[in-house]
Amino acid sequence: MLQITNMNIANVFRLWFSDWLIRLRCVLNGTCQVKIPLVH
Question: Is the whole model's pTM more than 0.70, yes or no?
């Protein structure tokens, strides 16, 4: 099994969350059309 540290989990979550925020903001602003995947 792979041992995942809390730091790695935090980094992955931050990257995923920031990417999701960018996509959501882009869609809300209507500046571009981006399909937001339910599963990343």
Answer: no
Q: 34: which 2 tokens? A: 């981006």
Element (H, E) at 5: none
**Residue showing tokens 């903001």:** 25
Both tokens of 39, joined, read 């599963």
User: 10: number of CA atoms within 13 Å, CB side?
Assistant: 3
DSSP string, 13-33: HHHHHHHHHHHHHHHHHTSS-
What is the average pLDDT score of the chain? Answer: 76
CB-hemisphere CA count at 13 Å for 34? Answer: 17
- The tokens 């809390």 sit on which residue? 6
